[in-house]
Fold these 4 entries.
Entry 1:
Amino acid sequence: MKKFWKISAWTVAVLVALALVLLVAGSIVLNKVSPALTENPAVGKWYSIAPEGALSADGTPWRGLFRKGKENKVIFLFFGGGVSLDAYTAARGYSVDSKHGYYSDNVSRLDFVGRMGFKAGIGSSREDNPFRDWTIVAFPYSTGDFHCGAGEYRYTGLDGKEHILHHRGYSNYEKTLEMVLPILGTPEAVLITGFSGGAFGTALLSSDLASRFPENTNITSYVDAGLLVKDDWHDVAVNQWHAPDSIASFIESDNLTLDALKALHRKHPGVKILFDCSVRDEAFSNYQAYIDRGDNMTTTKADGDRFNVYLKQMVKDFREAIPEGGLFLWDDIVSNEKEELTLHTIEMTHHFFDDRAGNGSIAEWVSSAVKGDVYSKGLDLLDHE
């Protein structure tokens, strides 16, 4: 594994979830930063989308973000921020356990971090960003359900009392679309994407979004790092998240991302499908350690090895099921040198625009797919592990 970039542990923590508590911005709330979305939004201005009844996991109001672009093209962007899988993780949201929390449970933590990502990554105004003039509909993630929940989950908190986790990712998504679709009209191109927890949301909701634009023949689904292997994903989706049957019905295996992308390909064969990931993703190695052995206090080289095995199988199955799809693997940003672990997610960072070890930038790869040229890069890295 080539070690071209090294980044600090603090930076990794921010990039892992894009939802950790930033002391200087912990009190910022979306509706205090951005004006409410109007029927005629101004180009280049950020607006808050505040659907009535939209909730975060802790029961506080949820908010989305909207920015109108100069071009008649739109990005649907799903934020990441962990996941709740059971009663143990439900009791440990970031606001309860800021050091070892499993998911963002309050959207007020996401605005500042998201804006920093928009300045650096796919939503930035830099000249080499092919998406700088696109409209963005952003879905902050504070429901612990990969954006597909539509119910409540009762659990016992660390205080010994009964609490309710509002898994409303899908409900919030639907309420948001009711507000923004009339404004969007018929875009010339649609890019559905998300990072980390939002990468799973991208896979799970791309088919639904594609159905909302039946006249659009240029739709791309780009999953930026979304791979966790778990035998009972279907049970989690149904019994904890209360995902609608339109989503839960296609979750059949231990890889819900691949299940979702295969279902998307079957229903919408014209949608271009992309998946990227670093080969020894530190954050997913950490979450996978909890799934596999119930312990993720530290992340080791062995955890990276295990994740790499799962990734190899994912790539093999993806290429067999979706031969028209595109893959981009990379290993040249090392987040933990001692354990040989690599950076988690890329589209909200400036690395999105950098050449990846001679394979070009991921921004170029996604832009090429939008234009109809879908290809894969970095697959040889798996042979080197």
Note: DSSP finds 13 helices and 13 strands in the chain.
Entry 2:
Amino acid sequence: MKDEKKQKKEVLKKEMERLGSLQRECKEEKIPVYLLFDGYDGAGKGVQIGRLMQALDPRGFDVYTGDKDTEEEALRPFLWRFAVHAPAAGRIAIYDTSWYRGVQADRFEGILKEKQVDAAFEDILAFERCLVDGGTVIVKLFLEISEKEQAKRFEKLLGSKDTAWRVTEKERERNVHYGKYKKISDEMIRRTDMPYAPWYVIDAKDKTETALTVIKTVADVLEKALEKKRAGKEPELFEAPLPPDRYEKGILAKADLTKSLKEAEYRKKLAKLQKRLETLHGELYRLRIPVILGFEGWDAAGKGGAIKRLTSHLDPRGYKVCPTASPNDLEKSHHYLWRFWNNVPKAGHIAIFDRTWYGRVMVERIEGFCSEADWHHAYREINEMETHFVNSGALVLKFWIQIDKDEQERRFNDRMKNPEKQWKITDEDWRNREKWDSYVLAVNEMLEKTSTKDAPWIVVEGNSKWYARIKVLETVADAMEKKIKEVEKDKKK
């Protein structure tokens, strides 16, 4: 028995050394890693995380707990806290209880209603697939113990005043209803056990054996990830690309750019709409409704002007304008959606994006800043991210401000002549005009593939700035009013 125990310790030591070496290699190859520890209460997640950490360089990982929300987290979509903590290239994020809490513990307690369960599973699957497609490795560990073993461990902890605090009322309740909790957990594993992010269910009765299995499992997964990265295989395309001419005569061609407004009518409507938006903003805050508005369009189309009029009468404490430029070094080290997750608004607040995550399927696609597989995957990833925002109660609207090529040239020349506006025009703006036709194809495909019922694209006829601004403000006000009525109706039920 002693020899067997000694042999296990030697094997564990070797596996820990292997894991430490693999961590260094993952850092060199810039592979981000998520390690999720889920399972039954009392199974020893904390103990096993501690053993795992002993094998790793502490400068290369962060540890989080997902068992409860901070005030900040509770005001945002459920997956927000995990998205903003996503590991940068070469780093490891370790979670003691992960995003699976929602479909496990929260479901058991009735916090997640049964009518919300399917959507919650879909959000999780989409989130994981998005991370994996972006190069992140996800290792999902489920530590399993029997009802009898759990009760035994609780009894031991409760027997000492120094450890009794570790057993909560909720955990004792889950032990009393172990069968129900097991059924929920089994369904969770079954519905989310995917080839790109499989579950590793580990018998956690013996702590040393569990530690060996956990560390070996993580090491094996990292080893395979390194082999795949070094093989240099491109991600697979999940759909056959359509011929380019499929989008030559698309949605943009249908925009009637002759639409306009006279100045007197514009001024009258603007004042009325801005006052209306001021009132609606207060209602959004009262009902804790988050709003996400995205603005895209041609250079000089008037995005800034529309945003300026939109925010004119809003309470500045309740909105944020998020201009999107080329990603900096920190942003480049993360998944391309990470920087946008960081600006998701709190409940009752508004986030306005001046250029958005759709850069992936426009400028990054056309300039070759990402692979063809990357931008093809992005349509699905973006749709799924926006769906999660909507499932979390947000109003999501996206505006494409359309102008023709002649109008853009006229505006460019006006800017160059005006000293106060020269800063708005760059050599890059002129260069982008040479790729106008390529952008038309990309934008038409984007509009068709990512305009959904709950997160629609609104094409704004923008040759007349006055007309464009009024259409934007009217659309936002009408959508806010509709959303407020829906929420108030639901509250009365």
Note: The beta strands are 33-39, 61-65, 92-96, 137-144, 199-203, 291-297, 319-323, 350-354, 395-402, 457-461.
Entry 3:
Amino acid sequence: MIPRAPLWYELLWRLALPFALLRLWWRGLKEPGYRRHVGERFGRYPALPDARLAIWIHAVSVGETRAAEPLVAALRDRYPDHRLVLTHMTAAGRATGHALFGNRVTQAYFPYDTSFGASQFLDWCRPCCGLLMETELWPNMILRTAARGIPLFLVNARMSEKSAHGYGRFARMSKNMLQALAGVAAQTAADAERLTRLGATRVAVTGNVKFDVAVPDTTAERGRALRRLFGESRPVWVAGSTRDGEETLLLAALARAPLPADALLVIVPRHPQRFDAVAELLGQRGLQFVRRSAGQPVPAGISIVLGDTMGEMLAYYTAADVAFIGGSLLPLGGQNLIEPLAVGTPVLIGPSTFNFAETARDALARGAARQGADADAIVVEATALLRDPELRARMTVAGTELLAAHRGATRRTLDWIAAQLAATRAWQATAMCG
């Protein structure tokens, strides 16, 4: 018998729902997407246009949605008669999904994790199989899905030691959730070990699907177009996916040790709701800058661009000579360093890399990335790289070799899922084609 989520968990969620509505309204002041499709958060969805079997993929936000891109492409190729339903928690994640997939998938918000929200979502979606990206563990949804006999997999799974400690505080609930999954496809052996320690069974190491990122054919031209706006002869350093507080650290370090006189810094905050806050920070420091959204060439006397557009991260990295990966200066674990490597751009990372620990170690060992202990060290490294095209070229080659060594995780993941499904009655019941 499949256990249910603890009563205290259900009660906490129900008590939190009014505050969740207020939070949606508040976040909607800066991101209008949070005020759209509100009913979906409570399990109320528009009717689907047809009765095709659905494969459900949950990607909570921007990073997970980008990571799901090769999986979505492979699933569409393998199961062309199935509907793909892609769910998110954040407005930015949903916007990213629309930019990547358009109408090729059905998008919706993941419901708040109440028992009724989970049940109503499953009634609407009717998935024959579900894939949760990375570390999305929601007790009601997982246990209700298992109770219906629907195979649900945690894929591209990662579990840092910090996260494992947090889940360990709720050991029984975590174990019930993980054992209710049809399987776990982990990124690394370390991730697999932590998940197994928490109670997961049927765990395999299939690699990181982010290495299978397909660079669109249009990316090179979009990067060249950006570079023309930035100034083709200027050295360009992109600080990508920066988090709150990191811009302050980097600007303070640059005040102490400026970049070469003609160099351009492009700051791209990770979250769009922070675009105006970073603009205000630059203004408070008396720094002249140009917004990318203005679409205008950057004057020679301007040394900073604010990357305030969505869906252009690969283009920013393509236009750069060097890329710093945000989320790594503060203890936030770092963002995705695979994207700049995929377009041949040398990478700089700060001290915090637990979200991509093995990838960061491999990139550093191969010479595809360099690391700084703090913002001052990052600025020193950036300056050195901007002045040394031969070193950048060697780092680009190392990055290409790193990607080649790790590609294939998407195929391995889907092959493993197909094998798990084939070994269960659910395969026959759902009529998924192999």
Note: The chain has two domains: 7-207+408-430, 219-405.
Entry 4:
Amino acid sequence: MKKAILIIHGFIGTISDNEYLQNYLTYDSNFDVFSKTLPGHFKNNEDYQKVEYLEWIKFVDLEITELINHGYKSIYVIGHSMGGILAGYAASKYKEVKKVVFLNAAYTYLNLKQTKVDILENRDYKDYIEVFSRVLHTSFPFFLELVKLVKEYYSCLKDIKADALILQSDMDQVIPIETPMEIYNTIKSPEKYVTYLEGERHMIFDGSLENRSRKHEIAEYIRIFLNGGNKWRNIWKEKI
């Protein structure tokens, strides 16, 4: 039986945010890869943004339960940004979740240090345009649902025993650089790894043609972790 991978996108995101990673993992015959849009994120739907954070939790419960009911005994969950919190919840609750990948997980957010360097010192606005444009198209009540989610489910970290890979972009304009070590020091996983992605921003795996070789490198790194074994232990690095 193949192993299932569930990829969960972030706040105000879409499944296209991790399109490259999803397509890349699909080529591995060991995995069946799944990704769906979170409630409240269908932009053409009349209920766009009109959800409470518990609907995101119910979504995860439904997706994991369906995978279990279809016979998957090993499920790997990858969560980007807010999706990292949902991935952590799944790993804390379901014994079938054997591995979890935190990708710029939003257990803390608003990286003012990096913003100061980018905006005030380097005058670099490029990577903020998409983030700010998404924020401008949301509402304050919707953002508060993210705040509630983090507050309510941060504590799930201490219940995680699945193998964990914590990936953090070292130039992430959203997530503080200290976040991965907070995760690492809280989870109870017997095998847990932190890797910093050098020169990367918050968005890594969108479907654009930009930086394809770099996307390939990071996606392959994740694929090897999910497959496990000595090959993974031999290639793990603190920075890539």
Note: The domain at 3-235 is CATH 3.40.50.1820 (Rossmann fold).
